[in-house]
Amino acid sequence: MPEAPKVLPKEATFLSATHIVDNKNEKSLQFIEDVTENAHEVQTQVLAEILSRSANVEYFQRHGLNGCTDRKTFKKVIPIVTYEDLKPDIDRIANGDTSPILCSKPISEFLTSSGTSGGERKLMPTIEEELGRRSLLYSLLMPVMSQYVPGLDKGKGMYFLFIKSEAKTPGGLVARPVLTSYYKSFHFKNRFNDPYTNYTSPNEVILCPDSYQSMYSQLLCGLFQNREVLRVGAVFASGFIRAIKFLEKHWSSVAEDIRTGTLNPEITDFSVRDSVLKILKPNPDLADFIEEECRKESWKGIITRLWPNTKYIDVIVTGTMSQYIPTLDYYSNGLPLVCTMYASSECYFGLNLNPLCKPSEVSYTLIPTMAYFEFLPVNRRDGFTNSISDSNSDKNQELVELVDVKLGEEYELVVTTYSGLYRYQVGDILKVAGFKNKAPQFSFVCRKNVVLSIDSDKTDEVELQNAVENATNKHLNPFGASLIEYTSYADTSTIPGHYVLYWEISQNGSTPIPGSVLEDCCLTVEESLNSVYRQGRVWDKSIGPLEIKMVEIGTFDKLMDYALSQGASINQYKAPRCVKFTPLVQLLNSGVVSNYFSPKCPFWVPGQKQ
């Protein structure tokens, strides 16, 4: 198997690091060439290594693998699975069973997925060595980027990075998001002296659990070093926009801190204060400049105005995040939007080898050393929700190898990892956009069956249906009212974005429905949604209050008429459970007679099973 590039030694000086970085970049790019040119051989070796390591685990014994490490036997006896199939084994591990159930190496922690099972975050098992594998993929990003934007080692990156709440399972294992795990790891906190990992924010600020103090301090540090900033970013586009909106509210206080070289007393975390005050010095001229720019009526181009040397914005703008592209373009004066990598809680997958491409053209090259990859052919139904045909025959289909996928075809990604997931359906729908040597490049199409998403939340059709039924049964039925039809929309015109439900109701009773009852409907829907959504509302503040828009009788008939005029079959038509197409949203909005918002946040408590 091609050798992975080595990281820089911790003791390297900046000058020596520059030479080492150039050498490392060459080795990293050669590594990508080698593993993509020999993708089939690497995948064979990865699978054999995973199977030989875990030959005696209970899961393999149960399915009769009997120590075999060849691809043919593996495909014959090991089933294609979803999280629900693995949940009994995962629950055993979470409850303290330390026997080798899924993996021969000890499960070090659980990574909480943004996907949910029964309203709760999925728990993905991981092992200690996976941190090294994730660090490898991170180490490949800047060598690729430097081919397109030279000189990035001469400045800093202003990235808005945050940790999220974590919990412990009954057996004592930590359960937390994958990025929280990485930011708290030795690999991140003691990262080597690489100019590419030189960020404006100290580690203490990134690791602050208070999102307000962390955001304020990250913006303060980024503005104080504004001339050194060459790239800006966050994980998701929505998170970056939240940072700009935060600055709109707090720029005056930030500028005053820069003017005086002191720190707002609202920042009470001692480690944050100490780390920021080591950077901050009085700078009245910079404070005047910030105030002058932020006082202007228009914030168009504010990113390039405040951080004039910025070359690009590094955020995810594929999938549901594409809805934020116009807002990013407005704030940045059209800076390149760069999507660098493709990863999830289950596994880190690959990277974008053409990072300056248009967002609509982003494709990711899967790195064959990360896991063993298979692909389930899918047929998307032609409809408003981009829904996926989800037949029971999925698990009986023949999966396609990494090197055998066909250009232009769509597949669901299936992974076998080093940490105990075998032939696991990730739920991402990918389209083959091209090839890098023998390795395919995929564009992200959508999450399987996801209807609504604002940030890291993912709400599917079944969950939405149950939430709506809970609200109507509890609040509308007592008034003799019934829901005729409904649909939904992820509204990102406001920051934070929020869910909108369009309801058409029939009121048979004589008592009018008070507005407070419809507000209670909003809250009941929110209370019925998964813990990821509720955390976004309560803790992360990344999702706004849910809104119900009441539409006049006949609005959904007009929606059907529009669909039929566009060629839909009247025999197969059903109202979409989510709308994205602008003419449909406009049609629905034209029928709105009243609207109501959730009056308070839904229930959510950090670190507790909801």
Instruction: Name the strands of the widest sheet in spatial order.
Output: 9-10-11-16-15-14-12-13
Q: Evaluate the radius of gyration.
A: 25 Å
Instruction: Give me the count of strands.
Output: 22
Describe the largest sheet.
8 strands, antiparallel
Quote the distance from N terminus to C terminus.
44 Å
Provide the helix percentage. Answer: 25-40%
Count of individual helical segments: 20
Could you characterize the architecture of this molecule?
The relative contact order is 0.10. This protein is 37% helix and 20% strand. With 610 residues, it is of the alpha+beta class. Mean pLDDT is 87; it is low at 7-17 and 382-393. The strands form five sheets. It has an eight-stranded antiparallel sheet with strand order 9-10-11-16-15-14-12-13. It is built from 20 helices and 22 strands. Helix 1 packs across helix 6 (130-146).
